[in-house]
Amino acid sequence: MQSNTNFHSLLCPDSIAVVGASRKPGKLGHLIVSNLIRAGYKGKLFPVNPAGGEILDLPVISAIKDLPTPPDMAIIALPRDKVIGAMKELAKADVSAICVITAGFRETGRDGFELEMAMADLARRKNITLLGPNSLGLINTHCNLNATIAQSIPQKGAIAFFSQSGALCSAILDWADGEHIGFSKFLSLGNKAGLSEADVLEALGDDPETKVIIGYLESVDDGEKFLRKARMVTEKKPVIMIKAGTTQSGARATSSHTGSMAGSVVASSAALRQAGIIQVHDLEALFDLARSFAEQPLPQGPNLTVVTNSGGPGILAADACEDAGLHLARPSQKTLEKLTEALPPFAAIYNPIDIIGDAKADRYRATLEAVAVDEFTNAILALLTPTASAEIEATAQAIIDVAEHCEKPIFACFMGGERIGPGRDMLIAAGIPCYAYPEPAVRAIEAMYAHYQWLNRPYPVEVCFRRDKGKGKQVIRKARKVGLKELPFSDAMDMALAYELPIPETRLVRTSDQAVRAAKKLGYPVALKIVSPHIANRGDVDGIALDLHTPREVRDAWLDITTRTQRKRPDAYLAGCLVQTMGPIKAREVIVRFTQDPQFGPLISFSLVGPSAEVLGDIAYRLAPLTLQDAQDIVREIKSFPLLRGARGEDPVSLAAIEDILLSMSQMATDFPEIQEAELNPILVDTEGAMVTDLRLTIG
Amino acid sequence: MQSNTNFHSLLCPDSIAVVGASRKPGKLGHLIVSNLIRAGYKGKLFPVNPAGGEILDLPVISAIKDLPTPPDMAIIALPRDKVIGAMKELAKADVSAICVITAGFRETGRDGFELEMAMADLARRKNITLLGPNSLGLINTHCNLNATIAQSIPQKGAIAFFSQSGALCSAILDWADGEHIGFSKFLSLGNKAGLSEADVLEALGDDPETKVIIGYLESVDDGEKFLRKARMVTEKKPVIMIKAGTTQSGARATSSHTGSMAGSVVASSAALRQAGIIQVHDLEALFDLARSFAEQPLPQGPNLTVVTNSGGPGILAADACEDAGLHLARPSQKTLEKLTEALPPFAAIYNPIDIIGDAKADRYRATLEAVAVDEFTNAILALLTPTASAEIEATAQAIIDVAEHCEKPIFACFMGGERIGPGRDMLIAAGIPCYAYPEPAVRAIEAMYAHYQWLNRPYPVEVCFRRDKGKGKQVIRKARKVGLKELPFSDAMDMALAYELPIPETRLVRTSDQAVRAAKKLGYPVALKIVSPHIANRGDVDGIALDLHTPREVRDAWLDITTRTQRKRPDAYLAGCLVQTMGPIKAREVIVRFTQDPQFGPLISFSLVGPSAEVLGDIAYRLAPLTLQDAQDIVREIKSFPLLRGARGEDPVSLAAIEDILLSMSQMATDFPEIQEAELNPILVDTEGAMVTDLRLTIG
Question: Within chain A, what is the greatest distance between any pair of CA atoms?
Answer without folding.
Answer: 102
